[in-house]
Amino acid sequence: MQVFVTGGTGTIGTAVVTELLAHGHTVLALARSDTAARQIHEAGAEVLRGSTADLDVLRAGAERADGVISLAFGGDYSTAGAVAASVAEETAALTTLGETLTGTGRPLVTVSGTPWIPGRASTEADPLPTDGPVGGRGRTVNAVLALASEGVRSTAVRLPRTVHDGGRGGFAGMLTEAARLSGVSGYPGDGAQRWPAVHAKDAAVLFRLALESAPAGTAWHAVADEGDRVRDIATVIGRRLGLPVEPLPVEDFGPFGAIFALDQPATSAHTRATLGWRPTHPALLADLENLRP
Fold first, then answer.
1. Which is one Gene Ontology cellular component term of this protein (predicted)?
2. pTM confidence score
3. Which of 86, 164, 228, 285 lies at 20 to 30 Å from 199 by C-alpha?
4. CA torsion angle for 209, 214, 219, 224 (degrees, to 10)?
5. Which residues of the chain form CATH 3.90.25?
6. Longest dimension (CA), the chain
7. How many CA atoms lie within 13 A of 62 on its CB side?
8. How far apart are CA 39 and CA 55, in angstroms?
9. Stretch(es) of the chain classified as CATH 3.40.50.720
10. CB 217 within 8 A of CB 148
11. Is CATH 3.40.50.720 the right assignment for the domain spanning 2-162+199-225?
């Protein structure tokens, strides 16, 4: 299958491109910079120059492909406005990709976060939040899944709060960078809240499985660790960086502070049983041991 991939040079995207190529697919990957283009070329994929803001480029990429995996999302999480801008750009990109694939029966795999359900681990059957800091993303993913009725084999892989590789990535990565900047490995609240996690290479396998065989209009959970306590995550970060571990006000964590404070475990039982997905790479707390001071 010729697969058009956006976001193919990030922590997740790099693993997805490698996974696809290793299983006989060819990859056309979007690159907004010379550095990204070089990385994609060295991985063995074909480069399409442009960004997710270039809707004509996205349309051309999707027209050339047998399927699309859309991973790109802005990396500026410093303010609520920056997050909203990233959501808006992603919405326009996915709308364009969906319109291009309408009536073709081809797969469109997109990404979201796992939802949070008070009092229990969320499942694949639970709805995404459609309000709050990432509510716009939930509405967009719902619209993509609705394309199943318009001849698109649309699916969504829901990623947990931390997608990691070598101790980097996701919410745990944000805690690490904040610790390096502040000199304190901090966590919001009492730290008993739980975050799910997955290794990037395990997540990549699920993206491939969804592309190859997931039914239209379905959502899947790329969850390996159902829920690590945030205090435990901060403790490993503090030990590896040689920093004190302390609770900090929610406000210190920027636009995601309120989400950081939530207890939000998630399960992937349905995904494992239905698609045969089996995580095999290190869990988050073990992977964080790879952090260097």
1. cytoplasm
2. 0.94
3. 86
4. -30
5. 164-196+227-265+283-290
6. 56
7. 28
8. 23
9. 2-162+199-225
10. yes
11. yes
Residues 6 or more apart in contact with residue 110 via CB below 8 angstroms: 69, 70, 94, 141, 144, 154, 155, 156, 157
pLDDT tens track, the chain, 293 positions: 999 999 999 999 999 999 999 999 999 999 999 999 999 999 999 999 999 999 999 999 999 999 999 998 765 555 667 667 777 889 999 999 999 999 999 999 999 999 999 999 999 999 998 887 778 889 999 999 999 999 999 999 999 999 999 878 889 999 999 999 999 999 999 999 999 999 999 999 999 999 999 999 999 999 999 999 999 999 999 999 999 999 999 999 887 788 899 999 999 999 999 999 999 999 999 999 999 88
CATH of domain 164-196+227-265+283-290: 3.90.25
Query: In whole angstroms, how far apart are CA 31 and each of 49, 53, 71, 169, 293?
Result: 5, 12, 12, 20, 31
How far is Cα 191 from Cα 61, in angstroms, rounded to an integer?
44
What stretch of H or E contains 230? helix 230-241
Cα angle 257, 187, 72 (rounded to 5 degrees) comes to: 50
Single out the residue of 69, 7, 11 nearest to residue 198, CA to CA: 11
